[in-house]
Amino acid sequence: LQAETGRGEWGARADVIDPVTVKVAIEKTISKALPWEKVRIGHNDCHSYMPTLVADKQVYSVVDDAHLFAQFIEDFKHIQTTRQHGMAKILWDYSKALLARPKWIWTLAKATSLKLFEMRRSLLKSK
Fold first, then answer.
1. CA distance 123 to 56
2. Spatial distance between the Cα atoms of 72 and 110, rounded to a whole number of angstroms
3. DSSP state of 55
């Protein structure tokens, strides 16, 4: 990442590229702070994960509740399905898991509804 090739729009860069400067660059680009601290996967110095949704060029964090996210990860950690298994397998495995833990269906429906309400203006403006 830090090679000085002399090519491209920026040419050689004086800044160090690390997780902190990448987060700052993302937030500067989207003109919005993201709640990076709410998603804890792996070691903070090595891993960052921030799922987002975009509508009408506005970026929205998917994770608003750190406790809810951590509890979801804990309750569904037994699922080892990855994108390499394909969408059908992912949907099947999580559907079975949600049916085994029906409280999550309501919890996720509520969280989704709140997020869609937050995004309503952007969703209406988007094509």
1. 7
2. 14
3. E
